[in-house]
Amino acid sequence: MSRFYPAILGVCLSISLGLPALADTLVSKTSPHDVATTVDRLAAAVEGAGANVIARVDHAGAAEKAGLELPPTQALIFGNPALGSLVMQDNPAAGLDLPMRVVVFEDEGGAVQVVYRDPSELRASHDLPSDAEYLKKMTGALGKLTDAAIAAE
Q1: Of the candidates 45, 100, 108, 123, which lies 20 to 30 Å from 93 by C-alpha distance?
Q2: Cα(60)–Cα(70) distance, rounded to whole angstroms?
Q3: Residue 10 lies in a domain
């Protein structure tokens, strides 16, 4: 047996055990509204909660300008500095993943999907404290905001 075998085995085990933790955790919800209406409703919910809409990105519109086609697809970028700043106090590199983003698109079947990354991914990606209260608040806020966007009228 090679003297490197235990080290190689250890690396393989840590990689295989770590893969689920490295996998992106996306939350997806279906909206009964079209893409533009869903994003409008999400923006209204964000502003109503006292957070800031930073940008609205029309991916399909940009694709069209480039001579390409995408189904209706928009992203809303928004944040609450009272929460995001706490994250960045623990690790400024978390600014790579902040402010929060939600993408809304029409899938191949014509259904409108609302997708965002679970804030718990920030903990693993940026070595944040596992008991960080701000992650729980961000998770709850994203859930409520996207629920408001997809609620029946």
Answers
A1: 45
A2: 5
A3: no
- Residues 111-123 have a mean pLDDT of 95
In Å, what is the CA distance from 46 to each residue of 13, 113, 144?
Answer: 42, 18, 10
Entry pTM: 0.83
Per the structure, the count of domains in the chain is 1
Q: For 13-41, write each residue's pLDDT tens digit.
A: 333 344 344 346 899 999 999 999 999 99
The per-residue pLDDT for 10 is 40
What CATH number did the domain enclosing 73 receive? 3.30.310.70
What phi and psi, each to the nearest 5 degrees, are found at residue 125?
-70, -30
With contact defined as beta carbons under 8 Å apart, do 150 and 33 qualify?
A: yes
